[in-house]
């Protein structure tokens, strides 16, 4: 049977009475306990309880105690509201960095919730790559989408670990970067494709750079937000399952539109 209350009314009630819902989250309480816990007047508690009863999020306990408890719907509403608040907070923390993301680029709150958002200092624009270098040194699998070469150190590290080590890499490169590497470093490209576990693809352009790094003990995704000249303006780092699933899906979508790179001829 549908609720007689509109979704907007219910959402407004939860937002206005969240403190009361939180106070009841760990078990039934009498009104005098709620007054003390919330540090408010009895009339405020009476009004809040009445509004939550109207949307069937709170129910009075049977028996002499006369306390109030959350219903199953009330518990679910509180959990959903908590998640929405966390999502909005995550978006708010990343707002400035997200301003550089193209409007039609894949993006999800799954990447932002639980993430660390940083902006490189102006005097050290490649500082975030130093952390990536550390992660690559212990990785056993990497998938990445790359727009430009920023430091030869990263290229050399990937070459050594795929040709001489046990690192497995898949990378989708912007066409300009693929052409640059083939023209300027043909031997390295040939070696990593033929002798290393390195599958390379090329696509016309990428909306941002990101790298999914897997180690024997953990996995992380690094998303590098770029400006119009492909400079790094921010880095979003996350290791939650939801963020990794999102990144894997986006990587698969981008790779599906890319062409495999063949080793350059001698």
UniProtKB/TrEMBL annotation:
CDD domains: HTH_ARSR (cd00090). InterPro entries: ArsR-like_HTH (IPR011991), FilR1_middle_dom (IPR013561), HVO_A0261-like_N (IPR057527), WH-like_DNA-bd_sf (IPR036388), WH_DNA-bd_sf (IPR036390). Residues 125-256 form the Methanogenesis regulatory protein FilR1 middle domain. Pfam families: FilR1_middle (PF08350), HVO_A0261_N (PF25213). Residues 6-90 form the HVO-A0261-like N-terminal domain. This is Transcriptional regulator.
């Amino acid at each position: 049977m549908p609720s007689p209350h509109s979704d907007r009314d219910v959402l407004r009630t939860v937002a206005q009475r969240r403190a009361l819902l939180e106070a009841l989250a760990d078990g039934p309480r009498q009104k005098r306990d709620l007054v003390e816990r919330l540090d408010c007047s009895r009339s405020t508690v009476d009004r809040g309880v009445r509004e939550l009863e109207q949307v069937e999020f709170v129910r009075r306990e049977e028996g002499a105690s006369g306390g109030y408890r959350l219903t199953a719907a009330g518990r679910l509403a509180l959990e959903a509201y908590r998640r929405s608040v966390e999502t909005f907070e995550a978006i708010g923390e990343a707002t400035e960095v997200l301003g550089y993301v193209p409007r039609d680029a894949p993006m999800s709150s799954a990447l932002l919730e639980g993430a660390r958002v940083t902006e490189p200092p102006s005097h050290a624009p490649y500082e975030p790559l130093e952390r990536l270098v550390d992660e690559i040194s212990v990785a056993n699998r990497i998938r990445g989408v790359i727009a430009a070469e920023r430091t030869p150190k990263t290229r050399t590290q990937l070459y050594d670990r795929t040709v001489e080590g046990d690192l497995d890499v898949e990378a989708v490169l912007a066409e300009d970067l693929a052409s640059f590497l083939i023209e300027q470093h043909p031997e390295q490209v040939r070696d990593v494709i033929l002798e290393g576990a390195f599958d390379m693809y090329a696509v016309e352009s990428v909306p941002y750079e990101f790298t999914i790094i897997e180690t024997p003990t953990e996995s992380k995704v690094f998303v590098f937000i770029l400006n119009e000249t492909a400079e790094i303006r921010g880095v979003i780092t996350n290791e939650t399952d939801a963020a990794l699933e999102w990144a894997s899906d986006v990587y698969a979508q981008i790779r599906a539109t890319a062409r495999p790179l063949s080793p350059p001829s001698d």
